[in-house]
Design a protein that fits this description.
single chain; 235 residues; mainly alpha; EcsC family protein; EcsC
Length: 235
Amino acid sequence: MTEYEQRALSELEFWKIKQTNKTSSLNRAAKRVQAKINEWIPKKVHAVITESIKGMVQTALAGSSIKSMEPLVGEELELREKLALEKVEVYKKAAAIEGSGTGAGGIFLGLADFPLLLTIKLKFLYDVSSIYGYDPKEYENRIYILYVFLLAFSSDEKRKETLALLEDWEAKKEELIQLDWQTFQQEYRDYLDIKKLLQLVPGIGAVVGFYVNYQLLDQLGETAKFAYRMRYFRV
């Protein structure tokens, strides 16, 4: 094991402990407020979110319309993570620009952000999978991608459950090939915080969209890094 890998493994163990911690009381209070706000959001918005997530899951499972780089073979972890970090920066900028553009249009154009952002996230995860040497053309690897997404954007309880599944992926993957997309979409919807909903408000939507999309891709990038470290080290 190289010095970089030793350090990466130590960081992974620390990150796993962090994932089992509860979110702050402030975040939990914000979720309660969000639940109330969700009651005021038009049904059309909820329908767009639901269909967008369902479409993303179906696209990932089919695996036919997403193109990605060829999987890297025989490279050390340090190089893989250098390339993954470069991808994160590219996709963060793309997501931020997209969020700013759709956010500037208020609620109607803002609705377009949900499917567009999901596409960006999925394309990013396909590329990261290839960088770590897992071909997203293979069904097992596409399922893993969806669980990485779920790990990044879910409640405390679901995050712990998903982390445990990914830690024991080789033993449990046969049980996980049929993803419950209803649970998947509900977790993602519940994760969308007040700031994201504010993207639909004319006047401030562009700024909110730029910032929030950037942060969401940053979070997804960190989660993907550690999730694929688990596969790399088989821990």
